[in-house]
Amino acid sequence: MTSRLFKPALLIWLAAMLASVLVISQTRFVADLSAFMPKLPSARQQMLIDQLRDGAIARIVLVGIEGSDEAERGRLSRLLVDKLAHNPRFTSVQNGDRQTQQRDQQYFFDNRYLLSPAVTPQRFSVTGLHDAIQGTLDAMSGDAGLIVKKILPRDPTGETLQILDQFIGENQPSTSDDIWVSRDGKRAVLLLQLGESGLNTDAQAAALEEVKQAFASLPGRHADTRLVMSGTSVISVASRNTIQGEVERLATLGTLLVVALLLLVYRSLPLLLLGLIPVVSGALVGIASVSLGFGHVHGLTLGFGTTLIGEAVDYSIYLFIQRAGGGNPSHFWRTIRLGVLTSVTGFAALMCSSFPGLSQLGLYSISGLLTAALVTRYILPGLMPQRLNLRDLSGPGLLLQKGLDVLTRMRWVMAVALLAAAAVLVFHQQDIWNRQLNALSSTSAAQNKLDAELRGDLGGNDMRYVASFSAPDQESALQLAERSRRVLQQLSRQNVIGGFHTPDELLPSMATQQARRASLPAAAETARRLALATQGLPLDASALQGFVGDVERSRQQPLLTRASLHGSAASVLLDSMLIKRPDSYLVLMPLRPASGENIALDKVRAALAAQQLGQVTVIDLLEETTAIFDSYTHEALLFSSLGSLAILLLLWLSCGWQQAVRVTIPLGCAVLCTVALLDACG
Questions:
Q1: 3 state DSSP class of 230
Q2: Where are the beta strands (DSSP E) in 452-594?
């Protein structure tokens, strides 16, 4: 290259490197499942993504305290709650203590006439009161007899029981000495809710670190006690750290091996540094391009892309060999041009993918390889010395040639290996791909076991089936949830579903609260109707004056808001179903199957549609994740095949059919054997 062209090229390169570094310094690196989620999801897919990103499930932390004895674990549990309760990083810190339980009981009891779905004008008529009181008296002989006897003077109509009926069948944590403990009693358990969404992994990591530090600093803590944590946020942070660590470790190891090999060959530090310039340039531009195109860079993209960009090492090797041989340095371009074109052609197919992970990988590789090739073509020749004296490698070359000759005589071994690989893939063709969500997690089996144990200890239900919708504001969301609940109640009676939860169970809409409050008669009228309703019942109206007073207070009390649940355990449940987003509200209503069976979702959807509730999306999260990953696998295979065909066509146009086939057959065999080996290893 002439000096006149080299100087502008050098300035452009330096400017590009500086710009790339500036972009990378502001880049957000992620390690979540976003790479495997479609860019334009369907309504069901969007609901799954919303659950993973914005749902309370992504903000729940399950905590266990192990070691020492029960008294010590209980003491540490209480101290940890006290220490984290006022930390702004947490919206809820619970361990089942008496104060929280009393707060929940007080909320439901004091507001029963606004919360009970049974409150209507008919219920507070003389006949309605008579029937309700008779039902409450009958309930005294049942399992809830002690509770009924205690609340009867103030709640003869049994509104508290109506509220509790909505939670029948729910698993509850075991308690000991007024705190939650594991099923076997060997672990104190706590439930934390983080303030940040599942998108902000950095903030979640900082919050988890504060939990660890708070536990470590508890006064008088026995040395044999330990803290364990799990939950979606814990697993996300651990996965991110693992991916980052693996990328850094493997990239460093790979770089050191390449550098050591090149240094062994070149025996020149300046030449080694020159040879790495295209690689570093390609990596910087690749990362910056993905950051500008997608707004973030996924850790997996960085790992795979950096491996592929290692191809750029070959470019400088070709150039150095050409210069050492005394030829024109520009002639090396003919050697690598076809390689660059085939690589770019193959990765270009990935750019059309609807999955960000594949698109990022395509953009990273294309921009990186093109940059590396251009730097080798226009920058390196101007930086190289005019004469290169490369080490004579004829000795090692002869050894390698002898090794190849031996392999040539053992073609039958390769033929057997190919047949075995084909047999493995044919035999396992139905289950060759792992379609489970946890297969993408880098967490260990021990962590998964701990997660299952803590969820069981805290009475967590499997949120496999969910009904969901979005609404512009909280009132609209709650009103639509109330309409949905009436349909779900009917499905529960028909045994289509085993149970469900909706946010209006904890916080009815303003319209519903106003209607229930309007159903309550004035104190004098309540007393008059009560006197008539108790005639013929083994209960005197004079013993129910507390009921009259409570009804009157409910008529005068302000309507409930989200703030009314502050500090209660019910607030965590509400937050898991009613999620505030920047411009809307997301409602997630978990459904339980009847008797452990699968739910016939077509019946649920049909029932909702019949009541003009078609905007409510009902999905099986397991089925939907499987469908998404099936789609991901399909696209990966499709675009890889299209890329391979494009490469084959390019080779045919450049070299002819025979040469193209000879070049591609070894690559195809390598892929076949690699996939078969991975499948055989599980």
A1: strand
A2: 465-471, 499-500, 578-580, 585-592
Nearest to 69, CA basis, from 218, 214, 186, 227: 186
Could you read off the pLDDT of 299-326 as tens digits, one per residue? 778 777 666 666 788 888 888 877 776 6
Give per-residue pLDDT as tens, 474-506: 999 999 999 999 999 999 999 999 889 999 999
Superfamily of domain 1-30+268-390 in the CATH hierarchy? Multidrug efflux transporter AcrB transmembrane domain (1.20.1640.10)
Which residue's structure tokens are 């519903």?
Answer: 512
Contact between 324 and 388 under an 8 Å Cβ cutoff? The reply is yes
Q: Which of 263, 357, 364, 376 is closest to 309 using CA atoms?
A: 364
Cα angle 172, 173, 176 (rounded to 5 degrees) comes to 130
Query: In terms of pTM, does the model score above 0.85?
Result: no
Strands 297-298 and 29-30: parallel
Which residues have CB under 8 Å from 297's CB, separation 6+? 27, 28, 29, 30, 287, 290, 291, 360
Residue 596: φ, ψ to 5° = 75, 10
Domain coordinates in residue numbering, the chain: 1-30+268-390, 398-429+617-682
**101, 152 contact by CB (below 8 A):** no
CB 150 within 8 A of CB 137: no
Question: What are the start-end ranges of the H helices in 349-468?
Answer: 356-378, 380-383, 394-409, 411-427, 445-457
